[in-house]
Amino acid sequence: MRQDLPSVQQPAAVPRTLGLIDLVLLKVVAIVNVNNVPPTAVFGRASLLLWVLAFVAFFIPEAVAVMVMVRRYPGEGGIYLWTRRLFGEGHGFFSGWCYWVNNLFYVPVLLIYIAGVAAFAAGERGAALIDRPWFAASVAFGWLIAMTVANVRGLAVGKWIQNIGGIGTALAVLLVVVAALAVVASGGTLVPPPAAGTGWEMAAGFSVMCFAFVGIELASTMGDEIRNPQRDLPRAIAISGAIAIGSYLLITGAVQALVPVRELGPIQGIMQAVAHGASLAGIRWIVAPIAVVMALSVGGAASAWFAGSSRVPFAAGLAHALPQALGRVHPRWGSPHVALITCAVLAALFTTLSFVGSTVNEAYQVLLKASVAIQLVPFIYLFLGTMKLEGVGGLTRAAGGLGLLVTIAGTFAAFLPPADVASVWVFELKMLAGVGGPSAVGWLLYWRTTRRARADLAAGGGVPSADASVR
Q1: Would you tell me how many other CB atoms lie within 10 Å of the CB of residue 459?
Q2: Domain 20-454 fold
Q3: Residue 26: which pLDDT band, with cuts at 50, 70 and 90?
Q4: Residue 425 Cα to chain centre, angstroms
Q5: What is the pLDDT of residue 400?
Q6: pLDDT over 90 for what percent of the chain?
Q7: Averaged over 413-429, what is the pLDDT?
Q8: CB–CB of 116/136 below 8 Å?
Q9: Treating both helix axes as pointing N-terminal to C-terminal, what angle do 60-72 and 360-388 enclose, rounded to 10 degrees?
Q10: How many Å apart are CA 93 and CA 87, to the nearest integer?
Q11: What are the distances in angstroms from CA 96 to CA 9, 103, 159, 218?
């Protein structure tokens, strides 16, 4: 273990409010994000094979790594805590920073997607509203405020948004499949091609699929808020994994049966498919209920990632790797309110910047790909750490090695531009700025904060402690 880690301030007690059902719903709503299907369903029946490959090559190694780390290093902070214990303070900070910053991109992705889905609830005329930035921004910021307030009130309140979102996810999958079956009964289904798109496009899509399975580690960032983590986390991982792969395969197959793959839009693809199929089957009335259920599903996912990722700056504040104010706990509600509000302000800023000089669709694509590239960085540490751990078996190390290879490949593939971007150079510049800019800011903050903390320790005659646990 590294011996140069600064001591960690002990937080005020946070209530243990998450049980097994809460964990399953949290993981389902975090992993099964229907917004990941349209950009990846365009490859024809090959999309189904790619989903299975992503599950085997990324989700299973991730599940193995997370279960090993949870047993070895329990506590608040999750992947930030694990990297910090295995590789030292600087690497722990960078891993946690990337995990956090990714969600500053990904939460806006989900917020924009909510707007696209909600537009369908207003009927055919309302569907055109997604092309109006003012509408997308209004829905995005409205939901951001609502989920911030709920989560500041504590997980006892905020968890119900995630729970309702998890139920909404299951209903959304069911209703989309019902719409497809109704079209099958009417004889109007389409037969997707065996494969569509170039190899480069499929590689980029595969990185998005791997990214879609990220989320089983999310509850671990709230390790001190789970009633029985050692017993319930492995069960929740197994249950949510089965639900996730089944859901992605069912939704992809249903969408491909309803709309030609090359006509799928990246934001409204699923609702576009449902509306088309409902019209063919004469059940147009089903479109609005599905739109509402899907909006709840994506809204729950946004809240889950928002709440979970806020625990990283919270833990970093306790460890003096970021300003200590981020480690404060609300005296009444027991929530990391400073970290939550900070995340909300930054997510609002990134949402605003994404619309500058872009259409809504292109803003969505840039945010999605940038979040993929940044999100996968902590998993490089996760899989390296799994291989580094003492006392683990050969299969665990092999899982870590496979996950590492897939993660590195997926990170590079995220920079491959989609076929419909207006300018490849502008897309790549935005990606470089989106990935490089936050990384540079993070290192600057870390350098300034740790330098100040070490100066304070030296002035007070203190000695850094080797105990890096965040409890």
Answers
A1: 8
A2: Amino acid/polyamine transporter I (1.20.1740)
A3: confident
A4: 26
A5: 93
A6: 12
A7: 73
A8: yes
A9: 60
A10: 10
A11: 17, 11, 22, 12
